[in-house]
Amino acid sequence: MTATQERPADAVEREIGRDRRRKEDQRLITGRTRWTDNLQLPGMLHLAMVRSPFAHATITSIDTSAAQDAPNVVTVLTGKDFGEELGVCINAWPITPDQVTPVHSPLPADRVSFAGEIVAVVVARSAAEARDAAELVDVEYDELPAALDLKDAAADTVLAHPDLGTNKSALWVFDSGEAGTGGNVEDAISKARDDGIVIEREYRQQRLIPAFMEPRSVVVDPTSEQLTMWSATQIPHILRFALAATTGVPESKIRVIAPDVGGGFGGKLQVTPEEWIAWAVARRIHKPVKYTETRSESLLSAHHGRDQWQKLTLAAEKDGTVTGFKVELLADLGAYVAIVGGGVPVLGAFMFNAIYKFPAYHFACQTVLTNKTWTDAYRGAGRPEATFGIERMMDELAAEVGVDPLAIREKNWIKHDEFPFTTVCGLEYDSGNYEAATARAKEMFGYDELRAEQMARRASGDKVQLGIGISTFTEMCGLAPSRVLGTLDYGAGGWEYASVRMLATGKVEVTTGASAHGQGHETAFSQIVADRLGVAFEDVEILHGDTQVAHRGLDTYGSRSLVVGGEALVRAADKVIEKAKPVAAHLLEASVDDLEFSGGRFTVRGTDQGMGIGEVATAVFAAHDYPEGVEPQLDSDATYDPVNFSFPHGTHLCAMEVDTETGALTMRKYVCVDDIGNIINPLIVSGQVHGGLVQGIAQALWEEAVYDDSGTLVSGSFVDYLLPTAADTISFDIDHTTSPSTTNSLGTKGVGEAGTIASTPAVVNAVVDAVRHLGVNDIQMPCTPERVWRAINGPGAGGSTTADAMPHFDGEGEQA
Amino acid sequence: MTRISLTVDGARVSDDVEPRMLLVQYLRERLGKTGTVIGCDTSNCGACTVHLNGTSVKSCNVLAVQADGGEVTTIEGLAQDGQLHPVQEAFRECHGLQCGFCTPGMIMQSVDLLNSNPNPSEEEIRLGLEGNLCRCTGYHNIVRAVQHAAGQGAGATS
Amino acid sequence: MIPAAFDYVAPTSVEDALAALAEHGDDAKIIAGGQSLLPVLRMRLNAPEWIIDLGRIESLRGVRDDGDAIVIGAMTPHAVVGADPLVAEHALLITKAVEHLADAQVRHRGTFGGALAHADPAGDLGAPARALGASFVIQGSGGTRTVGADDFFVDLFETAIGEDEILTEVRVPKHTGWGAHYEKFVRVAHQWPIVAVAATVRMEGDAIAEAGIGLTNMGSTPIRASGVEDALAGQPATEDAVHAAAERATDGTNPPSDLNGDADYRSHLARVLTRRAVLAAAGA
Known about the structure:
heterotrimer, A: alpha+beta, Aldehyde Oxidoreductase, domain 4, seven-stranded mixed β-sheet, five-stranded mixed β-sheet, 21 helices, 28% helix, C: alpha+beta, Uridine Diphospho-n-acetylenolpyruvylglucosamine Reductase, domain 2, Enolase-like, domain 1, four-stranded antiparallel β-sheet, (2Fe-2S)-binding protein (chain B), Diverse_Oxidoreductases (chain B), oxidoreductase (chain B), iron-sulfur (chain B), iron (chain B)
């Protein structure tokens, strides 16, 4: 009676490794979607936010009377109208015990700390009417001096929060000498000053905006015993916990649903004022409410990423053997310490040594409060910054020594036969093969031919010069071993949860605590479970993103879903098999010891007797005949806490053409060979790599959040915050080498952030390489044509960005 | 309020709308055509792309009243008789989408592109999609999808 | 994302449109294709009480041959202008400029007259209009007048069109057989040009007999680079000769400084791009 398609025992084709087309796509390509903003509930009201135009100001008065009187307005509320039930936005990772952390009210009543902060909320019957009324809220501000420039803020010249007395939030230090994981970096530097090479550079990690395509949206329904929040979030489980922890509603009364979520890239790894305000308003007025941000609001007030100054000192022997690396960072937190907050640069602290055998290392990061939009995780979170720093420095070292930049890397990297390798930061890299990935990349790239062309162009003085950029990256992902997080004072664990339910018809329902927003979990996880249980791919349903369905979980970020969540799946599936075994033995009238499980079937060794796991599920459902002392069900779950981080690596090679007359840049070729261990679905992996590459390339070439002197975000729309289009990018050549991870059953490593982490320095190295012979050794990101042109024609790295936008929307044009 | 009548995905509809209502809002809020989405407010992203009287437009950049009397096709009206349009099929086949938010607009613009140029070069595809932003795919597989659809004769059939 | 409320009228003749304009005056805005106006309204940077839609006036659409000129109706969509054989034959520069104007969706909806009347100095049509010496036919309640391209663009977003007038058509003198090139410099494809140069040349043998050069985004209006035009006349279409002439591209310009480039960089670009545009137009 089973409806399951058992795989024939002789069908050895495994799901893992197949380029399965995605299960998710049918609804997405036909518009049958459930974005949060699509939801309509009976009686639902709409919110519009009133936001501060000032970076720093005292709120002297708010007159809501005109707005209250506007058509179809239900109420207008300000910070003063709420008590403790409003809650606060949390920082989950105080990176030092004495971290200075301003209270982050979702709706401050007295003072605003960045331009875009919410000061009032209008509730009306339609979104249009809410917006109309929001225009009528009259707020009077008393403007305060604003802390805007990161270096100035670090000197406490102007205070972002005057009551705190300082802008310096936390100083986080790792020193290999003190930790006992390496030598003293100052000794290495002073020795190199006497008898070696010291490279000193200062690099800017510009401020970026995650710019997920789906603007954030939240719906709250308070009209049942459990309050439900739908949110365009990466972290429904953490969101539920934070709502319970800060708003006084018991966790058991809260259901959070992340329906279809249109991208995140870290930008939706947050608990937001908008969510908290919607929550408080719905509880106040007992009606469902919805808030959907505009793109302008999103760019202004959803958290930003990166924003560091990196002061780097590399010590080496004359032959280019690195003897020490010292990293001093200033990191801009913005106005508040966000949920991960200062933890973002700390995630990079263990990665500046990258794939290299550095004997001494020192890292110090000062986090700084400013009156700008708060910053937090953006794809890679700390690791792109670290990879950029070291990979740029290795190119500088190669130039100083006068050797090919690949040679300087090879001289310093960990050899394939040295794994597992404990780094100067104390991390144990489980597996890798940098030689193999680099050899493959060089071959695909045509490295020697392109170098020859570069030389020819230099020799002929071609107006278009060619540069070759290298990034031999690694990163730590698969966040994260809970005990390690505990030692770092992170406020939660890093485990993941999965359950496998065997349905009566033999179909399989899987829940995962990971929360996909484009990653393709429904497909890749189905492949894992199908293989493990020996059932058909189509018979597996992956359920996620709803705390009532997948009640436990720690969500999706940090390239963790497969390496942590996938392992939980494996373990839950294995428990199902273990539970089914005695039942199968009973039904087959055999001893448990004589049963084998393979290809979805239990068979009795040495006989042709057997039954499928779906048949066992059906039998257990009927429960007419099962062994004594056994529960009649197979459902199982597992919580997996990783034993180590995941360390994907790869070699990325980029060729850039530089028009030396205009500074215009054209990408000629991009090759990457990533070693991400075993691959579940190569099609999905290719998508992750391509998308990751373009985000990293975009940091190198286009994107920058620019503020003017008064703290206004100038790049506040897609007109001025430049995302690349299809016309600005090229097709990529990607491949993989495989060094399976030794720390999880499937041998997989994270891939979600790899492309972004690796590509930024590859591109900038290529740009600098193209014009190094013209006296250039740095170009500040984004490498705009103007910066390239200025660097060629004068000293410095191209100068800062003028903080004015083109006035396209100022027009009173007559007939547009 | 202004009375408008138009054809959307083959169905005739008629409504009183405020003149300020954008076509995309009319589609989403009044007709429940939530397959078409809003991704920006400056008409850069193209997520809201639909066909109006046979060519692609950004439905955030058209007033509903301007579409009066017109014929609109959205992503929800592209498949015929349960049969996916070749461009939809190609996006799935080539993994031309991840989160899927830009996808309706990307597919509608790709269909328009192939209607006017059934055999585009890679460069023509890339330029033809310059009004549509995607943050997930890096465009690589979107370009592959359009090439795949062109190879299937998508431009000729639609 | 939602414009402030307004009333709406969609007249079917220019006369009716002028009457509506007269009635609502300062409180009204004309919408042509709406591709620049609607974003402004959505972000509530402007909130007119009335919108007068020219979209239903059929007489404002189309391209026709009128002796020594071609005439482009103000409401002709960019995509139609870009594909029009008359335009390609007699004003190739416009075809070239339209090809990369905004994106395909905007070209379907946006109009030739609307873009010119909007008078964004970064718009792609002003420079070709100046380079080609186009003239603008403007209709008011008192009748019709024609304004030359040199007088049409007054300032940032300001033209010679009066508050009670409507641009109905643009007359472009035939440049049959002239080579043309529009050199546009952007950082990403969906941007307005940082600088662009519109160049059209009439060749006699290997020499440039006449040239028309317009600059985009090098001041508060599209600019005609007369100095370059004069310097090119009679010169061979060689790198050196054109380079020398292009050095005059910045005469009389006043480029802005913004996120995408400072004024001195734009001036440099204008010279380089002028040289490239002229050489490309000359087929050199």
